[in-house]
Amino acid sequence: MAIVNVSGLSKVYNIAVKEDGLVATLKHFWHRQYRPIAAVKDISFEIESGEMVGFLGANGAGKTTTLKMLTGLVYPSSGKIQVAGYIPFRRDQGFLQKITLVMGQKQQLIWDLPAIDSLRMNAAVYDIPENVFKHRLGELTEMLSLEGKLSQAMRKLSLGERMKAELLAALLHQPQVLFLDEPTLGLDVNAQASVRKFLKEYNDRYGATILLTSHYMTDITALCKRVLLIHQGGLIYDGSLDSLHDSFAPYREVRVELGANYNVDAELSGFLGKYGQILHIDGQSVCFLVQREDLTRTVSQILAELEVLDLAVSEPAIEEVIGRVFSAGTVNN
Ligand SMILES: Nc1ncnc2c1ncn2[C@@H]1O[C@H](COP(=O)(O)OP(=O)(O)OP(=O)(O)O)[C@@H](O)[C@H]1O
């Protein structure tokens, strides 16, 4: 059953515009002029309970604005949203108990205090009884490997530990729906991996629904089977990561290591073109693109016609595929 329903959602920000200079500043004071910015344009999607969905888009595409509307922080210009049966912008107590929003670039825990003090305050805000608080704290501390860290001032923790403490704080009330905006932003690869591992485990253990934005594709490929792609405010793709590969990268990279008796640069670069588009030549190694439907025939042909020491076939990187989708600006799926 869908726990997030979004239909025809749009957001237009009106930003005040002002020309330079004192006169313009005075004029602006009395007679403000506004320019509309369509940050989100008529997007619709549903998320099933327990799903983990990646939300991808370039800078300024509209991801944070969408997450803010889904959590009731920003009022939509038009369209409908329901999250866990609630209308977010009403900010009902029941709604706030069911959701959480974590923003990688914003902190809720107080810098000079130990995390445990802020966590106690959160427990009071969410009306969590002491025994439940202790139980959840123990469970989450263990899952996040934060033993011994919560009694130190936040400023003394590493960036990765701080992010994990933020996640703990955001999950103390055991929300059903997690909106995560760049939760691994700025973390080193080990800390990123440990946040990912935690999110996977949290989703498995509690069946939580997660909508996640990240500029690190490893987060998305490790956690999400489905992705939403937003481009200039519009939703241009909603489907599986695998189908994205199929629709936007209907080719494979074939890397061939040729025997030493070929002078690859001089002799072969010309006629190698018949096997596919040459991507690059490096010593005796040639890499080129072959359409997926031609792959078997082309590989057999290469093996029959050339002296091949090694041959490898790979899919193009997902970053590259998504780059193609964004440059095309639309997807028919
Ligand atoms: N409070 C605001 N007032 C006016 N314009 C805004 C406001 N917040 C965002 N915008 C504009 O709306 C558009 C979408 O911004 P948004 O922050 O949603 O993008 P994003 O996809 O989250 O980008 P990023 O990946 O850089 O965080 C941008 O053009 C941005 O400048």
TrEMBL record:
InterPro entries membership: AAA+_ATPase, ABC_transporter-like_ATP-bd, ABC_transporter-like_CS, ABC_transporter_ATP-binding, P-loop_NTPase
Domain ABC transporter, chain residue ranges per copy: 17-257
Superkingdom classification of source: Bacteria
Single GO molecular function: ATP hydrolysis activity
Stretches that traverse the bilayer: none
Classification via PROSITE patterns: ABC_TRANSPORTER_1, ABC_TRANSPORTER_2
Sorted UniProt keywords: ATP-binding, Nucleotide-binding, Transport
SMART domains xref list: AAA
PANTHER family documented for this protein: ABC TRANSPORTER ATP-BINDING PROTEIN, ABC TRANSPORTER RELATED
Protein name in UniProt: ATP-binding cassette domain-containing protein
Organism name: Pseudanabaena cinerea FACHB-1277
Lineage of the species this protein comes from: Bacteria, Bacillati, Cyanobacteriota, Cyanophyceae, Pseudanabaenales
